[in-house]
Design a protein that fits this description.
Layout (H helix, E strand, L loop, with lengths): L1 E3 L2 E6 L2 E6 L2 E6 L4 E5 L3 E5 L6 E12 L4 E8 L10 E8 L4 E9 L3 E6 L4 E5 L21 H4 L1 H8 L3 H25 L8 E5 L3 E2 L2 E2 L7 E5 L2
Antiparallel strand pairs: 1-4, 1-16, 2-3, 3-6, 4-5, 5-7, 6-7, 7-8, 8-9, 9-10, 10-11, 11-12, 13-16, 14-15
Helix pairs in contact: 2-3
Length: about 220
Amino acid sequence: TYCNVIPFFFYVNPNAFKKFSSFCILYLLEHGEEYIFTLPCAYARSILTIPWVELGGKVNIHCAKSGYSATVTFHTKPFYGGKLHRVTAEVKHNPTNTVVCKAQGEWNGILEFSYSNGETKVIDTTKLPTIRKKIRPISKQGPFESRHLWQHVTAALKEGDIDVATEHKHVLEERQRKEERQRATTNTLWKPKYFIKEVMGKIIGNRNVQSLHLNIFMTFQF
């Protein structure tokens, strides 16, 4: 799985939104397929009163091997009326330029699918089974595993103590800055455990990363 995410934050009173200049590449090993897709924007509404979050924008998905592509549009709520979390989508078979499926509904609620053969399907996402994360107890985690590293911040947030959470967060950040300065002084390169740096121009399947306006991105290995 390749993933490049470059977030940009904007603030427009009384809202804020995060725009991702990014793309991801997902490999389905059992099918030998490679999917390239973009990400929507995240909007934080009414941050000065009672904040809430929604997604907005268009997501493009493409698979060169199967010849299928899809466009998913996350619709933001109008100022007056309208529904929250509304989404529409269209799946196309590119070799024949045929729309094979359309979808509409709420991405966190009920989705209705209509196929070119007349078949329809309804999925209620709220009734789908939830697969919980399986993690080791904190006592058995390494010092740099995220839940172990941020356990005191998490505990303070659960208690609603923002000041204590901020203090622990500051300690972690200062420690990281100190370690970074030490590496710079000794010319020691940081070696990530799961990420590998890739350079612009690398060929991924039938797509050239350079065409995606990307300078450097990271490879995450599962």
